[in-house]
Hints:
11 helices, two-stranded antiparallel ribbon, 15 strands, alpha/beta
Amino acid sequence: MLRDAAALEALEAATGQAERGQSAYWKDGVNTFEVKADGTVAGASVLGMVSRKTGPLHRLMHWVLQFPFRRMGARFTPLADSLDIGRLIARRQHRAYTYDLLRHSLTLALVRHFVPLDRLDEVSAVIGDGYGMMASHLLLANPGRKVIAVNLTKPLLLDMVFLRQAVPGVGIALVRDAADMVAALADPTVNAIAVQADNAAALTAAPVALAINIVSMQEMEPAVVAEYFRILRAGRAGRTAFYCCNKLWKRLSDGTEVSFSQYPWAAGDDIVLDEMCDWSQWVYSKTPPFWHYRKGEGRVIWHRLVWLAKDGS
């Protein structure tokens, strides 16, 4: 188990290696940006946009244009606190509180509304985070509860670089197998556990009571998606809630079709929420009419929160 700077240096050293779980989408996507263990980032990542325009006028513009989105999340009781967490992340990372961060704040409010996150002997897992946004939200919402971040190697390094900015003093461990996972879970100085996608099976050694995937399963091969479901169902937590937000349908560049309805959901899954994700279906910009609806085939984004049927249940 590698820790902190050594963990990031190991990820940087591995960024050029082939990965079994890399889809056609990511064969090109990992080449659009560069990231180093020391925090240096260059290029434009497909994981989202980081705006450094943080002046008063830009902050006001985002606040006004985000009003409809705040309304969309008003039914979730932890909304105000979740938005504050997102703004804190933006300040610590010296970035604007943009649409990307807002969506993760809204997701946090939704999840906290339905899923108790107070048990510190359980962990949360984020599969395919971007800039560590969801992992940062979860760690700041429940500082004593460990968060596992699973991603392809280069995006995972980017996650950890931004996570360190959002959560000063965070203890990071790079886990490669079940034994490493057990050690990281037992170490009180470890807050964030980084797992490369090809080592995702290590999650079965963790009590993952909450898993989150936001618009990245739509970029995975169906077999990889199925493996994540298998891992979550086999995990050590008595119950596992899974929040999944992805396009209903997408065709990858090699012709592979990925369908939300064809994910390996089970008849025994207890569905809490299942609907179109309003705040992902709309975007805003400075161009009139300012708010724009995603229309057309392959642009409908759906989210579902379920208690997964566990193996043997």
